[in-house]
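This part of the workshop introduces the protein records we will be handling. An example says more than a description, so a record of this kind follows.
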Amino acid sequence: MGTWPKQVKYYPAVLLLLAVFQSFAQETSLAAPSQAISRNIKQSASLPPPNKIHFQRRAVIPTPALKAQQAKVAPSREITLPQANQTTTIPLNRHEKLLISKEKRYFDKSWNETTGLIDSVQGYSHTTMWDVASGVGGLLALEALGVNTQQQTDFRLEKMLKTLIKLPLYNQILPNRQYDTRTALPSGRMSNTPSNGNGWSALDLGRLYIWLEILKRHKPNLADNVEQLQSKWQLTRATKGGNLYGTKLTSTREYFRQEGRLGYLQYAATGFKLAGLNVDNAFKCNKLENVKLDDVSLLIDKGNLPFFTLDPYLLFAIEIGYQESCWDQLQQLYKLHKQQAQKTNKLTTYAEDSLSKSPWFLYNNIIFQGQAWLSVSHSGKPISYSQTFSNKAAFAMSVLFNEPYSEQLAQLVINNSARHSVIPTGLYADGKTNTAYNINTNSLILVSLWFKSRNRQAILLPITPIELQTETKTGTNTEIPKTSSRDTIKRERH
């Protein structure tokens, strides 16, 4: 299975200062979750196409079955969280500070003072709940990194929350999939109907609920606003049988179907878990398949539209904290991208991203319907002009892992951004820049820098900086922060 990243251990507070200096020199092994997975592989026959057509955040489409092995793995039923403590802050270098200034420019330019909402793409006055979460994260990061004042941040966040409280909800239940950032009214299909849109996305809501929980913990003064919002939204309606469900309204009927595939499902379900809902079935791994790509074992989802990108694994590690589990493939995906770079002599990072041309959004998949490194539209249609390097995914990996390869990823992001006033999305396969300047790119890089400045501790719980040190030099060993298991989510509402 290869050499895995080494675990970073955090000792009790009385030994904290000593541990900070020693942590980079430690060499303790981190058990690879995929090893446990591989021991439970059973050979199975070809699977028939799914009986039901499910849908994801942006599409509805059936898919053919794949030949593979079926993995039987015990579900990860609890989510462990990092414990709040003190930490040493890590100063950022001048290149990282320049990135922050570009990201601030995006947020300042795209913020709507009437609603407090932020445009999802520069010049495109619409947003989803996924993008709203990115807005919350970016605003918190700008303050934490010392760029915006507390007063400015609180003003913008409160304005946004008050708008969210008053949103016209889809059938008076949950937020619609899309809203106009200038008016806070539903946009997109069926937006001018009594239903207030065409349905909700459980994945988008799950991501937003993660950031609402982070917001409450970092900004207790805004907790009442968050709770008022949550009391109006009927999040339980987006669950069924311990799983996530979205709605899609068409001209003939409303569909209510399971939403989310491997990686995206577990990441979003964490938001539901934080809200106290029982979504245990979302974390089960008994219906996944094991395949190998370049001798790296990966799990893939058997459902339709099995979008498989880096995004949910990176977001989970930075926001919640990396944990060994049957579903989390962050280490394997990092190893795979590193091997791909060595083989092709070209840096690649496959993620979902906005596009500067039609179809305006791509899922750049590691594997999709049996094909490796395939870019598809929201409907699953292959696209020839793929984006092979995502700036946000590359930079997130660079703060999660610590070795020359990860440093190269960060440097390419810096180089890609040098001639732009805000951070561009990434690079197409032909080397041209994808200039779909968007909130998710600028937010994730901001939050990644915030994560790094916190000595690579997950964002969920607030910390108290105890001293400022010179920046630690990176070594040759790959490292990924290991979160504490002392604080476990146990709140559930059935």
Remarks:
- The chain is about 35% helix and 15% strand.
- The longest strand covers residues 361-368.
